TrEMBL record:
It comes from Ectopseudomonas guguanensis. This is Predicted N-acyltransferase, GNAT family. It comes from the Bacteria. InterPro entries: Acyl_CoA_acyltransferase (IPR016181), GNAT_dom (IPR000182), GNPNAT1-like (IPR039143). The lineage of its organism: Bacteria, Pseudomonadati, Pseudomonadota, Gammaproteobacteria, Pseudomonadales. Keywords: Acyltransferase, Transferase. PROSITE patterns: GNAT. Pfam families: Acetyltransf_1 (PF00583). Transmembrane segments: none annotated.
Amino acid sequence: MEVHIGNDPELIRLAQGIRHQVFTREQRIPAELDLDGLDEASFHALATEQGEPIATARLTVKEDGSSTMARVAVSEVYRGAGVASAVVQALLQHAQNIGVTSIELHAHSHLKGYYEKFGFEFIKEVEIVGEHQLIEMRRQLARS
């Protein structure tokens, strides 16, 4: 498995394909909620297996140095194999490398413990998207 980080049009297209399968088809989240206009201004981690895209996550950096991690999605057959952890870890490292000061995310509430393993802290419950309760979590990053 390889993880690529970038924001070129082809990488974004492949990431959107995984997200469409996971969010729109499987989780029944409306496509317009996923395609929020931030893809071109964000960094995307794309995991591939033998050249095939299998997972993605997105990091949107703000002018003040804070950022938002979102759109973590793994193809069904690769779930439970550590693929999500690989893309999350890759984005955390990239964020550190480019001087990001903090990362916020909105995750499904049942993933609270998972993200705590990466150093994220629970902030509060937020909106319900589709039928999924989301929670806000945040991680501060050390300055290099």
